[in-house]
Write a structure and sequence with these properties.
alpha+beta; seven-stranded antiparallel β-sheet; three-stranded antiparallel β-sheet; 9 helices; globular
Amino acid sequence: MKLPPHDISFRSVKNGTSTLRLYFNPVYLFMLDDIISIPERWDTGDANTIYRGRNTVKTFRFHNLNIAVKRYQKLSWVRRFVYTHMRPTKAIRGLVYSLEYIRRGIPSPEGIAAIEIYRRGILSDTYLITILSAGHELFPELVMARNYDPQLAINVADFIFRMHQCGIINKDSNLRNILSGNPDEHGNRLFECIDINRSVFTDSRFSYSRIATNLSRVTHRRELLQLITERYAVNAGLDVNRLINDVINRLNDFERGKSIRHRFKQILFK
């Protein structure tokens, strides 16, 4: 996998049979020692846990800056081998992609560093360090609310359209990964993207098929998705009815496939 070119610095620190590999944004060289200490301080009172699931996210405060640190889930032996020898880890992609988002004019929490810990030459643990976002998830506000704000949905559609115009698609573009901040001076909502390590970048236009597939991942709430798709079609000069039908059909196919995989796993593990 070819990463976008960015000025990323590298340090390696050995400790017995373990090696810490640090990839960092040179802008934050002044907090290098604090970053290196994160794995040792992970389970101390220095950190505040803000999310615990498949991955864990904690916050630290270094040099009067609020820092978010994501520790990725433990990897299977297969994935450890793949990330050791064949492709960049999610942490490195998250670091580099955040800088590429910002370079292209799409807000994302600025990447500070990626930490990889190797034990006996095999990847064991990974961390992504970014500036802590002040935004909040759109999922409760749009998906969970009985009566959501249609103007907010339109603003989201405008943001996704702008991302595509800037040559970015986030394959995980659901409303948990688009954060909303305070309005600007004109009253418009400001958005930013998180969980961006499955992004695609281009210097040309995205195909119609890729756009429709990407929109189908935004939400499972049909009337909300229809409104977002309608606004996107108007912005892009596309046939509104055709795009809505194609997006909904792709969502239906995705849900059917997910249901089949779930039933297969139940049978297999039973």
